[in-house]
Amino acid sequence: MPIKLIAIITMLIFNLPLAQAKENNTNEKTPIPDLISQPNTYWKNKLSPQVYQITRCSATEAPFTGKYWNNHENGTYKCSNCGIVLFDSKSKFDSHTGWPSFDKAMDNSVKTRTDSSYSMERNEVICKNCGAHLGHLFNDGPTSTGQRYCINSASLDFKKEGTVKKK
Ligand SMILES: [Zn+2]
């Protein structure tokens, strides 16, 4: 019977988008892995030895050696470990220290904790999302914020403004 056939086709057509929507919902509910609690072995496998030493063992790159201390291009600086945006190039300034320096971080992207190594009391800056060591925060910044985020290039991934990701 043609009517029966039409009914079946109609059902198929209307069911298809429903099935797709269900699949999308399921994907959205997939939990994001908790990066903060990942063991060091996870990062050792994921990162280059240099990036691992700096971001996971709190090493500091030698001044004037990193890839971004002298970068003046417009864009954003992401965490080299997890990819969240940490700094905007608009916040970057020339500190003449040999490390990329910023006068503020993106909202909700970093946190600080006291670092008492090398007989100094410093504010260590870490990525709020994955716990990567980024650098230190000082209160001697030359701009109105008074802050100087002194950050290792190895902790950052620069994304130039206008760079469109190929699909
Ligand atoms: Zn991160």
Helices and strands in order, then pairings?
Blueprint: H1 2-28, H2 40-46, H3 49-57, E1 75-79, E2 85-88, E3 92-93, E4 101-102, E5 110-115, E6 122-127, E7 133-138, E8 148-151, E9 156-160
Antiparallel strand pairs: 1-2, 1-9, 3-4, 4-8, 5-6, 6-7, 7-8
Bound molecules: zinc ion.
Zinc ion (ZN) binds at residues 79, 81-82, 84, 127, 129-130, 132.
Write up this protein:
With 167 residues, this protein is α+β, with helices and mostly antiparallel strands. The chain has a single domain, classed as Peptide methionine sulfoxide reductase (Metal Binding Protein, Guanine Nucleotide Exchange Factor, Chain A, Beta Complex), CATH 2.170.150. Helices cover 26% and strands 24% of the residues. A hairpin with a 5-residue loop joins strand 6 and strand 7 (133-138). Zinc ion (ZN) binds at residues 79, 81-82, 84, 127, 129-130, 132.
The dominant shape is: elongated
Query: Which residue ranges are poorly predicted, with pLDDT under 50 across at least 5 consecutive positions?
Result: 16-28
How large is the share of residues in beta strands? 15-25%
Total domain units:
1
CATH topology: Metal Binding Protein, Guanine Nucleotide Exchange Factor, Chain A
Give me the secondary-structure category. alpha+beta
Radius of gyration: 23 Å
Average pLDDT, all residues: 87
CATH class term: Mainly Beta
Q: Whole-Å distance between the termini?
A: 45 Å
Helix content: 25-40%
Which molecules are bound besides the chains? zinc ion
User: Number of DSSP helices?
Assistant: 3
